[in-house]
Amino acid sequence: MANQTATVTEFIDYSSEYEVLICRTCQFCIDPARVDRHLFKYHHSFGRQDRMNILTSINDRDLAFADPAAVAVPEPLKCYFSQLKLTAPEYFACHLCHQCVTKSEK
Fold first, then answer.
1. Is residue 39 part of a domain?
2. 58, 8 contact by CB (below 8 A)
3. 1 in any annotated domain
4. For the chain, how many structural domains are there in total?
5. What are the b/e assignments for 92-103, b being 16+ CB within 10 Å?
6. Which domain holds residue 48?
7. Please, are residues 6 and 13 in contact by the beta-carbon 8 Å criterion?
8. What is the pLDDT of residues 6-52, one digit of tens each?
9. Which tens digits make up the pLDDT trace of 91-102?
10. d(CA 54, CA 35)
11. How far apart are CA 25 and CA 10, in angstroms?
12. What is the rounded CA–CA span in Å between residue 81 and residue 9?
């Protein structure tokens, strides 16, 4: 099942269950303390004002964030984030050993 997320900006989503920000373009979680750096490093088309507007949108929402080193990882096959390329529903569990495999390992 896909995890429920809220749109913060057209580029950033937020999962309240896992307390993480997700960059829609990169399809990766972003350290909430380093959003500006992420945008500056990976999204060259954003000017300073664009980055500040995104940061303001995030800060105005008063979101809770998990410590990046302690973010809970979803159990295999429990849920996935359609925004994250690494958790797309392209994995399966063996009915005998319950080991998860990706589509390429079938």
1. yes
2. yes
3. no
4. 1
5. eeeeeeeeeeee
6. 6-105
7. yes
8. 899 999 999 888 899 989 888 888 899 999 999 999 998 999 999 99
9. 444 545 545 554
10. 9
11. 10
12. 17
CB atoms within 10 A of CB 14: 20
Q: What is the pLDDT of residues 60-92, one digit of tens each?
A: 998 999 888 888 776 665 655 666 665 544 444
Backbone angles phi, psi at 37, to 5 degrees: -65, -45
Q: Which residue reads 């495999």 in tokens?
A: 101
Position 74 in a domain? yes
Q: What is the pTM of this model?
A: 0.68
Q: How far is 42 from 25, CA to CA, in rounded Å? A: 10
Amino acid at 76: P
Q: Would residue 99 count as lying in a domain?
A: yes
Each residue of 46-84: b (16+ CB within 10 Å) or e? beeeebeebeeebeeeebeeeeeeeeeeeeeeebbbebb
